[in-house]
Amino acid sequence: SVGKNMAQAAGSVFAVDADDSIVSLRESTGREVWKNSDLTGRNLSAPASIGEYVAVADKDGYIHLLSAETGNYSGRSKIGDAGRPARLLSVDDTLYALTNGGKLYAFELRN
Q: How confident is the prediction for the chain on average, in pLDDT?
C-alpha cells in the first residue's frame, strides 16, 4: 500500500510504499511498471517528478534520483543533516528542497 503522496509524469504515477520502496504504476491501468527497494528503511519523502527522473529525500539528508523509465538509481546529493526535508517540489526542470535547518536548495537539470 502507498503510505505517502504520489507524483505523476508522462503516463506514470510514482509512489513510496510503507516499506520505503519506490514504485512506478501505469497511469491508465494501475499496473506496476517497476519497483526499487534499494532505499528501504530510509524514511523516504513523497516522490517528486523532475524531467526524466523521480526524486526522493531520506532521513539522512540525501536527495536521490532514479530513472523514471526504469527505476535505476541515477545519483544523490547530500543537502543536510539527519531529518529529511518536509517536501520536495519540482517546477519545470528545477527541484526545490527545504532542509530542517531552513536552507533552501534548488537543483536544475541540465542536458
A: 89
